[in-house]
Amino acid sequence: MREISCETISRAVAGMISTAAFELPSDVLEALAEARRREVSENGRLLLGRIEENARLARECRLPLCQDTGTAVFFVEVGAGLRIVGGLLTDAINDGVREGYGRAFLRKSICHPFTRANTGDNTPAIIHFIPVAGDRLHMTYLAKGGGAENKSAVRMLKPSDGKRGVIEAVLDIVGSAGASPCPPVVTGVGIGGNLERAAWLAKYALRRPLNRHNPDAELAGMEAEILERINRLGIGPLGLGGSTSCLGVHIELESCHIASLPLAVNLNCHSDRRGEVEL
């Protein structure tokens, strides 16, 4: 059985956090550049250029892409043939969050829901464990800002609503969010499961790079239609009008109960901060 130490995991987590805070993934930069070329509004092109300039300055000056450095969310694939030594995997990840946010001088945003007392180190992280075959440990990190996360939604649709109902509900959720999630957004859509599983699927969908198509042809077609229709809403970059309101739509689907059609939408802002490492 292969072994990985908690210290190795913590170092990897801290590295992902400090990189993601300052550097947008290449697929996001490419999507922003393409959006600026296609944008019909002069003001929209100007704002997209400012977003790209912000990304350049953040990378070169090692300054956070956004003052909201987010909740630390992890999807962790754990191989059945892997043994964590030196402690618990959850503790190792949280130690990495503590180190990464501290070392990079990132804002700590996690607090008690009622007293609003800050935990002081951006822990606890939100960690989703996924058992897999083999002996690998694969971690994906999302820095989820509050503005976009607050505009996410779950709707329990009727089975008769079908695909058309899902598409219209997604458009309504994104349209109602307007400027609040700092568009152009990335839209994660979870269909099926149950209430909590749909929300999980919507967030899991945000792991996929913007330049990677859905392998399911039907879902890829839905993604393309929703993206095109969101961009016709006229919200525009930073909510100030234009033809670029969304950079990408990613759908994940699972089976559900015969009496249900759960739908969830989880949004990321244009600062689509992600990290990925395999140990």
Mean pLDDT: 97
Q: Which strands sit side by side, in order, in the main sheet?
A: 4-2-5-10
The shape is globular
Alpha-beta content class: alpha/beta
Order of helices and strands: EHHHEEHEEHEHEHHEEE
The biggest beta sheet reads: 4 strands, mixed
Residues in helices, as a percent range:
25-40%
Annotation field: number of helices: 8
Q: How big is the Rg?
A: 19 Å
Defining key terms:
279 residues; alpha/beta; four-stranded mixed sheet; 8 helices
What does this molecule look like?
- With 279 residues, the protein is α/β, with parallel strands linked by helices.
- The chain folds into two domains: 2-20 and 65-144, no CATH class; 147-272, no CATH class.
- The chain has eight helices and ten strands.
- It has helices at residues 6-20, 26-38, 42-61, 89-103, 146-149, 162-177, 195-205, 217-230, and strands at 2-5, 71-79, 82-85, 126-132, 137-144, 153-157, 185-193, 246-256, 261-268, 274-278.
- The strands form three sheets. Strands 4-2-5-10 form a four-stranded mixed beta sheet.
- The radius of gyration is 19 Å and the shape is globular.
- The mean pLDDT is 97.
